[in-house]
UniProtKB/TrEMBL annotation:
One Pfam match: DUF4383
Keywords: Membrane, Transmembrane, Transmembrane helix
Name the record gives this protein: DUF4383 domain-containing protein
Superkingdom in the source lineage: Bacteria
Stretches that traverse the bilayer: 12-32, 44-68, 75-96, 108-129
Source organism per UniProt: Amycolatopsis thailandensis
Length: 143
């Protein structure tokens, strides 16, 4: 895999994904007062629950590590795609039913963020797979 060309192009995408989730995750820990009722813990328009903050912080830290080590970007993109596709599916069901016992407490802003994150990670992962294969086929034709 051509880490210099493709990795350099995808670093900003991965860094944006990582920093958005890292900031939301870390800030979310400050918006968890015990006095608030479920559903009132938010960072801007996004839910801030303990489990969701841990997930976002972990995704952010792993993304920063992937940016520092370009060989890890491929695995990070696919991991984020799978994880956030699942979170989106669960979040849509959770927000649509609005059950009171939901520990994660997704709202529609979270669902949109998770869907966009999943989609951008999927596109980045596909670009990583497709670009080197095009470069290899081009080199074979020249030989």
């Amino acid at each position: 895999m051509n880490e210099h060309g493709t990795g350099r192009l995808l670093r900003p995408v991965v860094l944006v994904i990582a920093l958005v989730h890292l900031v939301l995750g870390v800030l979310g820990f400050f918006f968890l007062p015990e006095a608030n009722q479920t559903g009132e813990n938010t960072v801007w328009i996004f839910s801030a629950t303990g489990m969701l903050n841990v997930i976002r912080t972990l995704i952010g830290v792993l993304g920063v590590v992937a940016v520092l080590k370009p060989a890890a970007i491929y695995g990070y993109c696919w991991m984020v795609f799978v994880a956030f596709a699942g979170l989106t599916a669960f979040g849509v069901l959770s927000a649509a039913t609005s059950s009171a016992g939901d520990a994660v407490n997704f709202n529609w802003a979270d669902n949109v963020l998770h869907a966009l994150t999943s989609l951008s990670a999927l596109i980045a992962g596909i670009v990583l797979v497709r670009r080197p294969s095009r470069e290899r086929t081009g080199r074979r034709a020249d030989v």
